[in-house]
Write a structure and sequence with these properties.
Layout (H helix, E strand, L loop, with lengths): L8 H8 L5 E3 L2 E3 L6 E6 L4 E7 L3 H16 L7 H17 L1 H12 L3 H22 L7 E2 L6 E9 L2 E5 L5 H14 L3 E5 L7 H11 L7 E3 L4 H10 L5 E5 L2 H10 L6 E5 L5 E4 L7 H10 L11 E5 H17 L18 H17 L1 E4 L18 E4 L6 H4 L6 E7 L2 H8 L4 E2 L1 E5 L3 H10 L4 E4 L14 E2 L2 E2 L7 H4 L1 E9 L3
Parallel strand pairs: 7-8, 7-10, 8-9, 10-11, 12-13, 12-18, 13-16, 15-16, 18-19
Antiparallel strand pairs: 1-2, 3-4, 5-6, 6-22, 11-21, 14-15, 17-20
Bound molecules: adenosine-5'-diphosphate.
């Protein structure tokens, strides 16, 4: 396959390897089906690579391999040895940061500056953090009153798990699942999104280099309704960890009932980003990057901007001016603020919402495709603001997953809380105010898994993340994620002779 000449050398060798196969037992193997998936470069519409699609028979093969690893080398490894391998993975990810960041930008479109600064360091941090947890997964000793018994709990690995992940942060979403699952001693079969099938294969190669035993991590590419569905229905898989849309989340819950496998879900959002009159001075930047980070392709994007009436005009003007100044262009250009959207399909979807927004309100900035000279085939959309609409408009209720924010004024705290909670989602929210009591009061009343105060989107691998309401269930990251990947076993022993 021809590889575009503009691709940095860090990623060129990997991409030049030809059609990518399935990663099972620490090696590439041929899929049983002939079907393939094309990975595109959304910056210029060129072909980046082709991957084989895993059939149901391939899923079965991957499950057998993962079960053998669980029953064998990986499952019997000491916690200390597991931790060492996870730590080693984090080091190897850091050593290959430039290549991984480049692959992420080429396939997803995101600015390389963000991939280098945020995505890949986060993956390394996840493995480092959970390397420490591997030796600290402890049960409890429990006093009993019903007799002379010793009762204690063990937190045991679940077994073979599957991770089904989206395209917006391909490696980060993989790391959020792999690191805690492996720390607990599980084995994992990962299915990347069909739009971004490449970088996780490279990460899998690196895990083998770090000494991860064969079968502990298998990577299968494929479409959601085929490969993804086969994973969800497979009775040899004990747990599915999913990140993606609410509609697919619902399907996964329904289709997983065969063996009643455990399911954790991190779904969509329509997060309120709230500015009170007394918000601190850097407030406009918080509104701007709350939505436009990662081109708004973020489940916690601050897509509903609530601004108190006293500062509404000022913030809206600042936001509009800021949006105009953002540089739209290819992600590999270090001066790019806004890269292309991931796919043509996603671009059309977002443009459709902009048409709806023009009907439901007024669009003071953006509103359509962005033209980037020399990149006419890229998926560029202007950063856009929709004003003069209401919280019940479609653009204020439905997740757009693009660089589009809806600005809504409010009078007082009561009105704000009512409107902010008037959504089926509950993933993220932010409150900007100099009044600490008010900020915490509002943070406690908004129904969301994360509430930021005077920042948007700050996080850490140690801080739990997940959704209320239709944004999902279960918490990833931090100590809480261990609950997603362990079963609690009670052991009750008689102490009588
Ligand atoms: P998005 O809307 O962000 O593309 P999706 O929810 O459609 O998110 O996709 C997220 C992940 O879920 C992808 O890996 C996709 O292939 C997978 N997926 C889609 N449909 C199904 C399904 N019916 N069963 C299992 N996985 C699916």
């Amino acid at each position: 396959m021809a590889v575009a000449t503009g691709i940095p050398s860090a990623a060129r060798d990997f991409l030049a390897g030809g059609e990518k196969r399935l990663w099972i037992d620490n090696e590439y193997v041929d899929a049983t089906s002939d079907s393939t998936i094309t990975a595109w470069n959304p910056a210029d519409g060129s072909v980046l690579g082709v991957v084989q699609e895993a059939s149901a028979a391939d899923v079965d093969r991957a499950v057998k391999s993962a079960q053998a690893a669980f029953d064998g080398e990986w499952g019997s490894m000491t916690p200390d040895d597991r931790g060492r391998i996870l730590w080693k993975i984090s080091e190897i990810v850091e050593a290959n940061l430039e290549e991984l960041a480049t692959l992420e930008t080429l396939n997803n479109g995101k600015p390389i500056v963000a991939a280098r600064r945020d995505d890949i360091p986060n993956v390394a941090a996840m493995f480092r953090y959970y390397a420490g947890w591997a030796t600290k997964i402890e049960g409890k000793s429990i006093p009993v009153s019903s007799g002379n018994y010793l009762a204690y709990t063990r937190h045991e690995a679940i077994g073979v798990c599957a991770g089904i992940i989206p395209w917006n942060y391909p490696l980060m979403m993989a790391g959020w699942k792999l690191a805690p699952a492996l720390a607990c001693g599980n084995t994992m079969i990962m299915k990347p999104a069909e739009q971004t099938p490449l970088s996780l294969l490279r990460l899998a190669e690196l895990t083998a280099e770090a000494g991860l035993p064969a079968g502990a991590v298998n990577v299968l590419n494929g479409m959601g309704e085929t490969t993804g569905d086969a994973l969800v229905r497979h009775n040899g898989i004990e747990k599915v960890a999913f990140t993606g849309s609410a509609d697919v989340g619902r399907m996964i819950v329904q289709n997983s009932t065969g063996n009643l496998k455990r399911v954790s879900l991190e779904l969509g959002g329509k997060s309120p980003n709230v500015f009170f009159d007394d918000a601190p001075a850097d407030r406009v930047d918080g509104a701007l990057w709350g939505i436009f980070y990662n081109m708004g392709q973020d489940c916690t994007a601050g897509s509903r901007l609530f601004v108190q009436e006293g500062v509404y005009d000022e913030i809206l003007e600042g936001l509009v001016a800021g949006a105009r100044e953002l540089k739209v262009g290819p992600g590999l250009d270090e001066s790019t603020d806004i890269g292309p959207l991931v796919s043509r399909e996603q671009t059309e979807r977002v443009l459709g919402y902009l048409t709806v927004g023009a009907d439901e309100g007024h669009v003071p900035v953006g509103g359509g495709r962005a033209s980037v000279p020399g990149y006419e085939q890229g998926n560029y959309v202007q950063p856009s603001v929709i004003a003069d609409t209401t919280n019940d408009a479609r653009v204020a209720q439905e997740e757009i997953f693009g660089p589009v924010v809806v600005a809504l004024p409010f009078k007082d705290e009561d009105e704000l809380v009512r409107k902010a909670n008037d959504t089926v989602y509950g993933l993220g929210a932010a409150v900007w105010s100099s009044n600490a009591k008010r900020a915490h009061r509002v943070a406690h009343t908004i129904k969301a898994g994360t509430v930021w105060i005077n920042n948007y989107g700050a996080g850490d691998v140690s801080v739990p993340f997940g959704g209320f309401k239709q944004s999902g269930h279960g918490r990833e990251m931090g100590q809480y994620a261990l609950e997603l990947y362990t079963e609690v076993k009670a052991v009750v022993a008689s102490l009588d002779d």
